[in-house]
Amino acid sequence: MMLHLGVASTDPIILEQMHALVKKSRDRRDIGLEVLSVPSPGPGQVLIETEAVGLCGSDIHAINGQVGYEWMPERVTLGHEAVGRIVRTGSNVDPARIGNRVVPMAIDGCLECETCLSGAPQLCLERDCLGLSFDGALAQYFVLDADRVFVIDNSLRASVAALIEPAAVAAHAVGQLAVNLRGHRVVVSGPGAVGILSCLFAAAAGADVELVCPEVGPQTRREFAEQLGIKTVYGQRRLAAGPPVDAWIEASGAEAAFSGAVGSLRRGGTLVVVALFARAPALDINQMVRGELRMCGTYGYTRADYSTAHKLLVGWQDRLAPMVSTYQLADFDAAISATEQAAVIKAVVVPESTNKTIARSTKDDLSH
Ligand SMILES: [Zn+2]
Ligand SMILES: [Zn+2]
Question: Which domains does the chain have, with CATH numbers?
Answer without folding.
Answer: 17-167+301-366 (3.90.180.10), 177-297 (3.40.50.720)
